[in-house]
Specification:
The protein is mostly helical and 103 residues long. It contains three helices and two strands; from the N terminus they run ααββα.
Length: 103
């Protein structure tokens, strides 16, 4: 591996180098993932399982968001009591008043 003296590169050259590195990292990541998946599929088949069964068995390891369950984002947090939040424009929790009610 050759070392590049980045201290002598211009800003534009650094940006271009960064873009090239990001592309190479993405390609290597994709290649390594394909190798891992291929090995996983072969091990499943050798053990008498299907890829579908292996995929189903992996679901507990997936984050909740990838399974279609997402938490509602907080739209407003009461500065006096951060535990009081509003996550929906329609539903208001106890203690909150809309700006129209304050007028």
């Amino acid at each position: 591996m050759s070392n590049v003296d980045v201290t002598k590169l211009s800003y534009a050259q650094l940006i271009e180098l960064n873009k090239q590195l990001e592309r190479q990292i993405a390609e290597k990541r994709s290649e390594e993932l394909k190798v891992l998946v291929d090995g996983f599929a072969r091990k499943l088949e050798a053990a008498g399982f299907t890829v579908a069964e292996g995929t189903e068995a992996l679901k507990p390891y997936l984050p909740a968001a990838s399974l279609g369950r997402t938490a509602a984002s907080v739209r407003y947090r009461n500065p006096a009591n951060p535990a009081d939040t509003v996550s929906s424009p329609v539903k208001q929790t106890v203690g909150f008043q809309s700006p129209r009610q304050l007028l």
